[in-house]
């Protein structure tokens, strides 16, 4: 037995067929073992590895099949090692136990992935590939290219096969990759991820779907979206600059307007007083348009929280109290769930406010607005609806109303700047849901439906 450990790798642990410790050497980075533990079951020994390994099950499998097994693990210092569990035999070839050995992973000591030429090649292969689909084990080993779902440059992906995520990606990516693979396999649901690879000249962005295949493997579908991300950032920068440049002249117009109307009303004709109302309305509309525009392109990290549905509705009605009172609107609630809902509070408050405000504004003056709000609990979603008795929407316009700068009532001269429903759509999508509208015909009201995922993946 001593001879066996002398020829074994530096970090080794010897177990008999009953999983009792027979000998060890330099194993403290992986297990907390004392000399007095020899003869005890390995199940009673604290594991110091950062990687869950299900040791007993793996050892039993090797004892049963007499076939060695290898996987990548992290020791207590976060360094990567290959852990091999192999059977050992007596001279008579009768199986007696297993030898667990740890060999340093060749990338475990690389502090900066950019210094490793082979890893650079792996990243270049990914960057050269417009779209790829590979299968990957839950331990993070790339197994196979799925050519029928990959867009050209298949040869580039041969760099990945048989490699661990740690060999291909920097730490900030492979940690998240591993977590998403495990989430997908454990939940049986597709998990999405976005990743950025830093380069000296420019960065590359990728969008990845992790699709579970079975209890041990998942598909990794990756598409480079660098151009889309760069375009989005350029548009956001342009919009912010444009909004900033517009604010000052609008403030100046508003200031001079207030100086102008300081004259007593008696000095204005009835027609001039009407003109001042139109000027103020349009100044306010322009200011709101700029605010909506900047809000639409904001991309802050969302903060989800659990909010009671009834409390949120009270906040919405309080914010719209002046408008509701002025129009004598009748707000009705159907099946209000006395439950808490997972959401970005400010977003969902704005969503309801936009829909209710539209429902009131786009109801003709001679008609009292009657609005019904309904909530329905589904398996994985909440479904909400807001129904009004307003003008309705023509069938040919129903698909256009969620597009920015397209007004809800395209053929009517109504108040609005075309951003409210576009913002609603973005909010709903951020919550993993969908939004749509149904209108029988013009003059018979509209119902807006939207769904919110019960719990967003973090």
Write the layout of secondary structure elements.
Blueprint: H1 2-6, E1 11-16, E2 21-25, H2 55-65, E3 69-74, E4 80-89, E5 95-104, H3 117-128, E6 131-137, E7 142-145, H4 165-168, H5 171-187, E8 191-197, E9 204-212, E10 217-224, H6 226-260, H7 270-297, E11 305-308, H8 309-319, H9 321-327, E12 330-334, E13 340-343, H10 345-361, E14 370-377, E15 381-387, H11 420-430, E16 435-438, E17 447-453
Parallel strand pairs: 12-14
Antiparallel strand pairs: 1-2, 1-5, 3-4, 4-5, 6-7, 6-10, 8-9, 9-10, 11-13, 14-15, 15-17, 16-17
Average pLDDT level: 76
User: What is the ordering of alpha helices and beta strands?
Assistant: HEEHEEEHEEHHEEEHHEHHEEHEEHEE
Assembly status: single chain
Extended strand count: 17
The span between the termini is 49 Å
In the CATH hierarchy, the third-tier topology of the largest domain is known as Heat Shock Protein 90
CATH class of the largest domain: Alpha Beta
The overall number of domains is 4
| Range of helix content | 25-40%
Helix count equals 11
Give the uncertain stretches in residue-range form: 107-120, 125-130, 148-155, 408-414
Q: Strand count, sense and closure of the main sheet?
A: 5 strands, antiparallel
What would the principal axes of the Cα set say about the shape? Answer: elongated
Strand order within the widest sheet? Answer: 2-1-5-4-3
Q: So, CATH architecture of the largest domain?
A: 2-Layer Sandwich
